[in-house]
Amino acid sequence: xxxxxxxxxxxxxxxxxxxxxxxxxxxxxxxxxxxxxxxxxxxxxxxxxxxxxxxxxxxxxxxxxxxxxxxxxxxxxxxxxxxxxxxxxxxxxxxxxxxxxxxxx
Length: 105
What we know:
The chain is mainly alpha-helical and 105 residues long.
């Protein structure tokens, strides 16, 4: 399993840079012009920290046989959030599901 620094860098790579709608093409949706400094949205860091906490949960974390949270599910959830969240949106609440998934509210 990835450590916090490894996971944070993996989850905050350039693929999560904001879209630049004025540039027109979806092909460049995850790239920024070189002369623009990109500040990640305020919700991103606490959300990543919440996801990383969920990834630390052991098997049977709920005492009823829950499976470990799957990294692929966390990555997909984070990518979906990057697509739908605005920069000023409050950080979502993320909770584990006993089948290895996550719920985002």
